[in-house]
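Q&A log
Question type: sequence-to-structure
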Amino acid sequence: MGLQNRCQSTCKMFTFEHTSFKKSLLMLVIVVLLISFTYYKKLFKPLNYSKHNAKPTAIMEYNSNYRLKEDDLAIREIFSYINQSVCNAPFIWINKTTSGLEGRAILLNHMEKHYVGDDLIVQVDMFDYLGEKKTYGGDFLRARIYSKKFGAGASGRIEDFNNGSYNIHFTLSWEGSVSISIILIHPSEGVSLLWKARNMGYEHIQFTGKFLSNSQEIHRECGFYLESKEEMCEYADKKHDEFFYCIKPPNVPCEALISLMSSNKPHSYLSVMENNIFNRSNIGVKVPINIGTITVLKPQEERAEVMTKCRTGLSPPFPSGYFFQNVWHSLFCNLSSYGPLSQINTCLSGKIIYLMGDSTLRQWIQYFPKLLKNLKFFDLHGRGWHKRYLALDMDNNIFIQWKRHGHPFVTNGFYNMKEYSTITNEIDRLSGDPYTIIVIGLGHHFRAFPLTVFIRRVLNIKKAVERILIRSPDTKIIIKSENTRELGVEPERFSEFHGYIQYNLVKDIFKGLNIGIIDAWDMTIAFGSNSAHPSETIIRNEINMFLAYIC
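Response status: OK
Response body:
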């Protein structure tokens, strides 16, 4: 019973609503102060920079002589909440872990006829490789219904009973034959290992800085945390408590850093036996489903459901929509009764659009010229895909810019550091007005680092969003969530579980603000996409949702 009680669902949304925070804040602070110094020293060791007298990048070790800042307490609170929500399942040996092939799925609410608008509930019971029923939850499952013939798909909402059984809830949104897909991405034991490994340190990624001195290039190691006694260059955003370091080349000023790149280090925080869980054959295993095809009929009575216009300030549910004929239809706002893409020239006329984030937002600016025939790229003479992009439509007075987000930016090619900036600082530089639109999208590059790095960044961005909405309430802010990616690519670094945690974190931290959410996670699951860079079909539908918020 002890393990069962400690195992919480990793497949339900983490909720950080302000009301629950306020009620539990005092209790959580007391708990934090009572937790032993030894525990926090172990948990947050990678964040201690005392070796070279530098300031920590995230959570401070507890010290009676140091007064934690409000942000540090908030980060601890959020991290503690997630830590309690992740199942702490023991790994003994592989045969005692959850087996997708041993899973059993049955339809709970089977009816002779299913109609559009009905709910479909599938019960899934999970077993280990020995055929023994699991007694705790926390398995990382993914579920969708789909109809290839109609280009249709929708995500399933997973309910974890913490006893090895799950209910998966689907909404039937289109007519025709519907198939069900349920896959086990990671067993609960694998989830526990991934969570442990992620927060143990910074050894997954190595950064290399290029310094220029008298036309000579000098390379030095850089990062959030460096195990070195050599002199350091500190690149600090002290206002937002974000820090980055490089080992200083002799007789070269720190200002001589011109570019940065990264590489994946051959490092693992897991043992050889633990890593066996993450063999490709054990990731994304289909759970057997003996339900057959579901035939969905037109409803006997038309359901006159009037949805509000898509606008900022709404909180999308999960699932938030579905694909039909490769077009995304919203379940929470009126997207399907008109085509925002058909009005794109009128909608974006006179607008200044800032795309701030990773390469999944860069896909937007590369796709926009297919929608705006007069949109032309302005050559800023940068190098590589990570350079800043600027596109202009002089006839319709449209300005679109993409700029990469700040550290960490994971890429094996050098990128320019001369115009480095974080999303937080980029937003703070803008005055804002009814013609300014900011789209934010980040996540993938943070997966290989302790979650506290991501929490701090998102909290800082949230504050910047709040500030610009105070000085200019008419500024439009859109958050594009993280999307799914390849299942078998270095799971310890880039697992979908890491992305799932971040996806929920972003939605909950920004909840209640006057912003729009584009749920790319939901879209890519519904579409059956497993690519870090989704297809143009998904990009087109993301942009369509974006236009619905601002038109």
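Response note: The longest helix spans residues 451-471.
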